[in-house]
Amino acid sequence: RKEVEQDPGPFNVPEGATVAFNCTYSNSASQSFFWYRQDCRKEPKLLMSVYSSGNEDGRFTAQLNRASQYISLLIRDSKLSDSATYLCVARLKAAGNKLTFGGGTRVLVKP
Amino acid sequence: GAVVSQHPSWVICKSGTSVKIECRSLDFQATTMFWYRQFPKQSLMLMATSNEGSKATYEQGVEKDKFLINHASLTLSTLTVTSAHPEDSSFYICSARWPFSYEQYFGPGTRLTVT
């Protein structure tokens, strides 16, 4: 079982719509989480950290559910520029604070 | 914001030669940098953790004698792929950890093609 699992998608989203997707992690001792976005053939860019109480950054909302071991990302009012692969990332202190990346969820926003 | 540069952005080399990739944190000091590799349509795989002034820590299955890492200053880490083979062709990405944080900021990556 992968440590961090994501639905690869693609999620085809009409422009202006809301899309949400989850990521599950296998190690309950994982301590912090992040969402990165990666455009085709580019490096990942930090989108947001995920806090236990949930957090919002503009049109993006991240939630953490420790009981069920999943993280979610919701994008409101989708823009064409939101088309990308979204990477879910977990940090495990016991593993030297390394970041473990999920395989990514591809989102395609269409006019 | 955090800026990490990487050089070169792409390189083509012949089998058997060595290639050096540089990773620099431009606006902050990074005691820890990371080297990842990403094959097409796959996620990032951590190769090694580079700590300034000490030896790098390699992930299981990554040959330390083949992938030489040097982190000689707080703003520069280098990865040298020695005796490159076509199967080493990949997208190599470095990242630097923001001070007093676990957030990592990535360089733009180096696309290596070994012929």
Provide structural commentary:
- Chain A is an all-beta fold.
- Chain A is built from no helices and eleven strands.
- Chain A starts with a strand and ends with a strand.
- Chain B is built from no helices and eleven strands.
- Chain B has strands spanning 4-7, 10-13, 19-25, 32-38, 45-51, 57-58, 67-73, 76-81, 90-97, 104-106, 110-114.
- Chain B is globular and about 40 Å long.
- Classes of the chains: A mainly beta (111), B mainly beta (115).
In short:
The complex is a heterodimer of chains A (111) and B (115). With 111 residues, chain A is an all-beta fold. Chain A has strands at 4-6, 11-14, 19-25, 32-38, 44-50, 55-57, 60-65, 70-75, 84-92, 98-101, 105-110.
| CA distance, first residue to last residue of chain A | 37 Å
User: Rounded to an integer, what's the Rg of chain A over CA atoms?
Assistant: 13 Å
Note the beta-strand portion of chain A.
over 45%
Shape of chain A: globular
Segments of chain B where pLDDT lies below 50 for 5+ residues?
A: none
What is the general shape of chain B? globular
**Total strand segments of chain B:** 11
Radius of gyration of chain B, Cα only, in angstroms? 13 Å
Query: What is the multimeric organization of the chains shown?
Result: heterodimer
Distance between the termini of chain B: 37 Å
Order of helices and strands of chain B: EEEEEEEEEEE
Q: What class would the helix/strand composition of chain A place it in?
A: mainly beta
Q: Into which percent range does the helicity of residues of chain B fall?
A: under 10%
